[in-house]
Amino acid sequence: MNIPENLKYSQDHEWLRVEGEEAFVGITAHAANELGDIVFLDIPSVGETLDKDEVFGSIEAVKTVADLLLPVSGEIVEFNQTLEEKPALVNSDPYGEGWIVKIKMTEPSQVASLMDAAAYTEMLG
């Protein structure tokens, strides 16, 4: 399974790619695979500032709906609009075109509490 080295990972299978004070958030290939075919994303939190592990939206697959949790505190500044038309990008390219939101981190020090690729791989067993 593809687990990029340049990302940080949460226990809840979200990933974080830091770019300065901002960061991109998505779900891991493992999570996308477990959910199955993703058909819709509901991200009502754009413009809101949320705490680490707070729900920022939901992701709907053919068989289930799951909450999306923010891996670090921050303001949701952008939703990936491409996913409105093509939610399956989360399945086919979870670490690239399938990113879900961009945030402005309010506590960048929280990044240190996330797992690196090796720790995430170990967690998956």
Summarize the structure.
It contains 4 helices and 9 strands.
Describe this entry's structure for a reader.
There is one protein chain. The protein is α+β, with helices and mostly antiparallel strands and 125 residues long. It has a single domain (12-107), classed as OB fold (Dihydrolipoamide Acetyltransferase, E2P) (Beta Barrel). 18% of the residues lie in helices and 35% in strands. The protein is built from four helices and nine strands. It has helices spanning 29-35, 82-85, 89-92, 117-124, and strands at residues 8-9, 14-19, 22-27, 38-42, 49-50, 55-61, 65-69, 74-79, 101-105. It has a six-stranded antiparallel sheet with strand order 1-2-3-9-8-5. The radius of gyration is 13 Å and the shape is globular.
- Which structural class is indicated by helix and strand composition? alpha+beta
User: Under the CATH scheme, which architecture would be assigned?
Assistant: Beta Barrel
Secondary structure tally: strands: 9
Order of strands in the sheet with the most strands?
A: 1-2-3-9-8-5
